[in-house]
Amino acid sequence: MQATEPKALDPAGPNTRAITYIRRVQITSGLILFLFVTTHLMNHSLGLWSFEWLEAGRGVFVAFWQSPPMSLVFYGALILHMILALKAVYVRDSLRSISRTEWLQLVLGFSLPPLLAMHLMGTRGAHELNEVVIHYIDTLRVLWHFKPTMGVLQAVALVVVWLHGCIGLHQWFRFRRGYVQWRPYLLVFAVLLPTLALAGYIAAGAEVLARVQLEAAKPSPATAPVTAPVTNPYPSDEDGYDYGPAEPRFSVAELEAIAANMRLGALILLVSALTLRLVRRWRAQQRLGIGVRYDDGREIRIALGTSILDASREHGIDHASVCGGRGRCSTCRVRIAGDPAELPPPSEAELRVLRRVGAAPNVRLACQLHPTSDVAVTLLLPPRADAEAGAPRPGYLQGEEREIAVLFADLRDFTGFSEHRLPYDVVFVLNRYFAEMGHAIEAAGGRIDKFVGDGIMALFGVEAGVETGSRRALAAARGMAAALDRLNQAMAQDLKEPLRIGIGIHAGPAIVGEMGYGEARGMTAIGDTVNTASRLEALTKQHGAQLIVSEATVMAAGVDLSAYPEISLDIRGREEPLGARIVTTAGELPDPGPTT
Ligand code: FES
């Protein structure tokens, strides 16, 4: 595949390098925060065993995350992640291009500041501002005894933050090689860890409440800290923990006020981003200058800076976008009419995705393409394309000549059969037949190309080569004949006479590639080899045979069919007549040998 190399940045177009860096920063900051949450939840889950384990885990957690370098990393990641989330809202041309999953991730993400502000101030904030050590028992006492509503909210926050992170990772990983294999294990981890963390949180909270009841029944200095007044969340050293200074610089009320300001600040930032976005869109609407023409004849005008995907969304044109316009899935890809060099060059990230799917040089991701002049596009995938469409694809799908074996099969006299049957019976019998034949073809390593009427076309050796493909085609013919015998026995009551089949096989060069339109688009083959295989199949009727296979196939397969009668036929475009063997009963063919 020849892909367009990145060129110097076009000052009129998007800053492609910046887009790549921003994406990296977003992923890296998200990964750091996910690691933080993962270790935090692991710490929570130790509550299932005992307070001592919980506290010991906290020691390790705090030693790592509150060390000066990791504090810098954590706060940096948190601030950058929030800024980039706001920027993502601001730069979106159309909110309609956001997928449901992405909406869920955004809503979960923006609900985190209000959910976590007080937790952050009550733990890390209190530690930093008051220079005190916050133990698990302090936090649990507040959440389970003094402020149970907040305790419930923290459990909700745990689920929200975990879901937000998991969705983000899923969105990032799902187009990567190997993710499908790892997905079941990751799913188990994604469910197990928060479940254990919640169980640990509940177990530790239950222990705190038990202590409270014990103290209420019989107060003693040993249990005093559990029910100490909430005005002082940092109890004295009587419980054996080191809390630092007895008189905190910031009271609980002051910490709560800071948390309230943080919530307000987050809301103001979000509203500002949405407002600025509206202003930006309004100003862009004033400069509608770029014409976009679709292959079905529709023409629209868009503002400079609008992506093709957003243009489609804004004008109600169905356009696939599995990743919601993040430049990862490739399902939005479009073919550009004219010279692709006249468009802003693709970023490195876009090029990587285009290479992954073996895209031609005139194919671009609609979500990443912000045209600077009039453009004509063809949508390459149906609107409901799924993530599979973005999986790595072999280069030959773009069109390539390959040596392959082609098999055609047809039911004899099926038209007569169908004339005297109810439509339901015809469909039932045909579907049983297709299932049996399809299974035999696939079991032999073939690829079913299409079912047409009662006919079947199958390809062999597209990837494995013509020798293996020819052996596979012969093995498929044997399997089909055997399967037809079984089917005839099983349906003896329903059929006046057994179904009969004719198969033609030929091997040679054919043009293979992805062809068709919309939902009917798929890999197929065209050329003389295909036509000849079809012609051999048609001749089976005249010769009363189940199979006619060309000598070219026999030679490529390396099998000896000299015992079978030979015919030769003139093929248009060939100087020499084509030799072929007539096999009356395909099930009696010799074993063609290895098919792997
Ligand atoms: S929408 Fe996924 S790459 Fe464009």
What is the CATH C level class of the largest domain, in words? Mainly Alpha
Number of strands: 13
H/E order of the elements? HHHHHHHHHEEHEHEEEHHEEHEEHEHEE
Overall pLDDT confidence = 84
Helix content bin: 40-55%
Number of domains: 3
The coarse silhouette is elongated
CA distance, first residue to last residue: 27 Å
Percent strand equals 5-15%
> How would a crystallographer describe the biggest sheet?
8 strands, mixed
Low-confidence stretches: 1-14, 221-244
Q: Measured on Cα atoms, how large is the radius of gyration?
A: 34 Å
* CATH architecture designation of the largest domain: Up-down Bundle
Q: What small molecules accompany the polymer chains?
A: FE2/S2 (inorganic) cluster
- Looking at CATH, which topology of the largest domain would you report? 3 helical TM bundles of succinate and fumarate reductases
Q: Pairing-aware structural class of the strands and helices?
A: alpha+beta
Task: Summarize the entry for a quick read.
With 596 residues, this protein is α+β, with helices and mostly antiparallel strands.
Descriptive overview:
The protein is α+β, with helices and mostly antiparallel strands and 596 residues long. The protein has three domains: 16-277, 3 helical TM bundles of succinate and fumarate reductases; 288-390, Ubiquitin-like (UB roll), CATH 3.10.20; 395-588, Nucleotide cyclase, GGDEF domain (Alpha-Beta Plaits, 2-Layer Sandwich). The protein has helices spanning 16-45, 51-65, 68-91, 100-110, 112-130, 136-146, 148-173, 179-217, 252-285, 308-314, 348-356, 414-419, 423-443, 466-490, 528-543, 551-557; strands at residues 288-294, 299-303, 334-336, 363-364, 375-379, 400-411, 447-452, 455-460, 501-515, 522-526, 547-550, 566-569, 578-583. The strands form two sheets. Strands 6, 7, 8, 9, 10, 11, 12 and 13 form an eight-stranded mixed sheet that branches. Strand 12 (566-569) and strand 13 (578-583) form a beta hairpin. Helix 7 runs antiparallel to helix 8. Bound molecules: FE2/S2 (inorganic) cluster. FE2/S2 (inorganic) cluster is lined by residues 309, 321-323, 325-332, 365, 367.
